[in-house]
Write a structure and sequence with these properties.
alpha/beta, Thrombin, subunit H, Rossmann fold, 4 domains, seven-stranded parallel beta sheet, six-stranded parallel beta sheet, 23 helices, 23 strands, globular
């Protein structure tokens, strides 16, 4: 998060204010550094560097400044409460399904056979580290009794299909059937070819259903499926239709889930509770990903591009016959193929004729969604086989067409497309080790509406491999988060900003688990090292990265933010090594700042929701209310044991409805750390909660 004075910032407890720099504050005679936020009416809020996770930069609709709140007023509380209520409604069904899945028993697949090893060894490319990790995670999930629900998120061309093929093969070799659901007819044909090609030497039968297959052939497929003669069936939404009956369905693979309608998603929900489910997506911020980030489903992120790939060179230009001729001629001269995207069926033939006139030697094919099924399939198949040099097509090629020989794409009237559509279209090229080109043909930038201009510039700016997340975040900046997230969520995201929406979503899901899904909350509590999600730290120690050590303010803010979100000892040591390398030996204030992060982690393990280290005393405020199971558990027993061993200087008492433990004298961080190590029963560094935290 980079902040400049004047930027709008949202605090999860106080609402929208304006960032007005870093400021030194006096705490008990010692100097600390804090973020200064200005609210309505000139109110000022200082946010400790231990509380940066509680603020986020406001990302609303560009050019529309948000309404700044007044500190202490009820308007932010009302907005937050309304948002949380709506979010809970959206999250409830998903968590219900998740709880049902955790409680149900599915089919536990056997460990890899020699056939599985052989299939994976026959992959003609080298696996990326992320591909290996995702493959292992999927196979581990499949071998458990609990039905799998994993989302694999990776940019276009990063090898998600190969993971699906391996999972499908694992299911098929264990006698289970596999459904592969895709959003478009073209993509179903592409996947059918990919799966068939990869599995041709193995005893697995692959088939497909889509609008191209009708009548007698369709009836034969349906009968064979019901008899168990088809192992893997690939298809569009027809695959969840009434006609399709499975003999023994074990795995459901869903490609680009966000492109399906509500009716299909409802049918998927009923299937998902009992069979293993694997979702693939290249779009980085669908609602499915948000819930994965909140722990409602398992997530694998593939961010490393395959080796020997180049970024797609992206250029904005006007519709120019010379440019079109040169781009296509160059691609053909190096033995490649090109796409020309023209999204109007009415005059698509004239465009193909123009290309024939400009490049007389080019063999030009035409493809669009209004064509007869067999005819479209023939055109696509011929293009894949190299019978055409140029394919003039509508956006039907957007999802899943994987032709490594096609490395130039020209997108006509690019200003009329959405940013994620442009990103998907560009992903059709650059899928081999050849340099690829994308030409965005549009009127001059100065003549375009602001949003269109910014979309094209974002495409030009983010052309590196794996830049999908950057593009999605830019999309949020340009048009506001709401449009991207569906009707139920759009209104209030404009009021609170996207990042704060994510924080409130996390809070809502935590509360839902505690209130409605106690078994999920208990399961998580049993499996985690820490007991408390957040420990608020108050101290009168001098804690900061001093000006003389790091003079650049935005650099200091970025480093404070990174430190506040740190969640493990390994990361903290790497952070310290970077500071030493870049800025030299750490001053005492910086050393103490790093040590307080460890102190917070320890307090989380003990069960303190708040930790005060002031005036030679350490006061821990217990997170749980009276009567909680915490007080019957081993963590609290350790606290009691410590009290018995240290009768002098240790006192437990109640204040403001919370149980507290006071230990004195505790004069410095080393003494505080020694106390917390004994209370937590660990001498080793510990990990933080997923959102290590504090506030003062």
């Amino acid at each position: 998060m980079s902040l400049e004075p004047g930027d709008f910032v949202v605090h999860i407890d106080h609402g929208i204010g304006e960032f007005s720099g870093l400021q030194k504050v006096d705490v008990g005679g010692k100097e600390q550094e804090a973020i200064r936020l200005k609210y309505k009416g000139g109110d000022i809020l200082y946010v400790s560097v231990h509380s940066l996770h509680r603020i986020s930069k406001f990302t609303g609709k560009e050019g529309m400044p948000p309404k700044v709140h007044k500190l202490g007023s009820s308007s932010w509380a009302a907005t937050k409460s309304k948002t949380k209520k709506r979010v809970k409604e959206i999250a409830f069904d998903l968590l219900k399904l998740y709880a049902k899945r955790r409680a149900s028993r599915g089919f536990a697949y056997t460990p890899d056979t020699y056939l599985q090893t052989e299939l994976e060894a026959s992959f003609m490319y080298q696996d990326t580290p992320d591909q290996l990790t995702a493959t292992e995670a999927v196979k581990e999930d499949m071998e458990k009794e609990v039905p799998m629900d994993r989302l694999v998120c990776g940019d276009v061309g990063f090898g998600k299909t190969e993971i699906a093929i391996r999972a499908a093969f694992k299911a098929a070799t264990d006698g289970k059937q596999v459904a592969v659901l895709v959003p478009t007819t073209i993509l179903s044909m592409q996947h059918f070819r990919s799966f068939s090609r990869r599995l041709k030497d193995f005893p697995v039968k692959v088939d497909y259903v889509n609008r191209f297959k009708t009548g007698k052939k369709m009836t034969e497929t349906v009968k064979a499926l019901e008899a168990g003669e088809i192992d893997i069936l690939i298809g569009t939404h027809a695959i969840v239709g009434k006609r399709i009956k499975w003999k023994d369905l074990g795995l459901l693979v869903i490609d680009e889930e966000q492109k399906f309608g509500v009716a299909v998603k409802d049918k998927l929900k009923t299937l998902r509770a009992t069979v293993d489910s694997l979702t693939l997506t290249a779009t980085p911020i669908p609602r499915t990903l948000q819930f994965s980030l909140m722990g409602a489903r398992d997530l694998s992120i593939m961010s490393t591009p395959p080796p020997n790939r180049y970024p797609v060179e992206t250029e904005i230009g006007s519709f120019n016959e010379e440019l079109i001729r040169d781009a296509i001629s160059y691609e053909i001269s190096r033995g490649g193929q090109a796409y020309f995207v023209h999204n109007r069926v009415g005059n698509i033939r004239e465009v193909a004729g123009m290309i024939n006139r400009l490049v007389p030697d080019a063999r030009v094919g035409i493809g669009h969604g209004q064509m007869d099924g067999e005819q479209l399939e023939r055109v696509m198949s011929d293009f894949i086989d190299g019978a055409y040099d140029v394919l003039v097509a509508t956006t039907i090629i957007e999802s899943g067409i994987d032709i490594s020989n096609a490395n130039t794409i020209l997108i006509n009237e690019a200003h009329t497309f959405g940013l994620s559509d442009l990103h998907q279209l560009r992903g059709r090229v650059g899928r081999s080790n050849k340099r690829a080109f994308c030409y965005l043909l549009a009127p001059p930038l100065h003549a375009l509406p602001t949003e269109s201009r910014k979309r094209l510039q974002a495409m030009e700016q983010f052309s590196e491999l794996g830049s999908g997340m950057n593009i999605a975040m830019r999309d949020l900046d340009i048009r506001g988060a709401g449009n991207l997230l569906g009707g139920e969520q759009s209104g209030f995201i404009t009021d609170i900003g996207f990042e704060m929406y994510q924080k409130i979503l996390a809070e809502a899901i935590r509360e839902l688990k505690d209130e409605e899904f106690a078994e999920l909350a208990q399961e998580e509590a049993d499996s985690r090292e820490h007991y408390v999600e957040e420990t608020v730290l108050e101290t009168d120690l001098a804690l900061m990265l001093p000006d003389h050590y790091i003079s650049d303010i935005s650099e200091r803010i970025a480093l404070y933010r990174e430190l506040d979100e740190m969640d493990n000892e390994e990361g903290l040591q790497a952070y310290e090594a970077r500071l030493l390398d870049r800025f030299g030996p750490l001053p005492k204030e910086a050393e103490d700042l790093l040590e307080t992060i460890r102190l917070r982690w320890m307090a989380q393990v003990v069960g303190f929701g708040k930790l005060v280290l002031k005036g030679g005393k350490l006061i821990g405020v217990f997170h749980d209310e009276e009567g909680s199971d915490y007080y019957k558990g081993v963590r609290f027993q350790r606290v009691l044991d410590y009290m018995q061993a240290n009768v002098k200087g240790v006192q437990m008492y109640q204040r403001n409805g919370a149980l507290r433990l006071r230990v004195e004298p505790v004069d410095d961080l080393n003494a505080a750390m020694a106390v917390l190590r004994k209370l937590s029963g660990t001498l080793q560094p510990v990990k933080a909660a997923p959102s290590a935290a504090s506030e003062h």
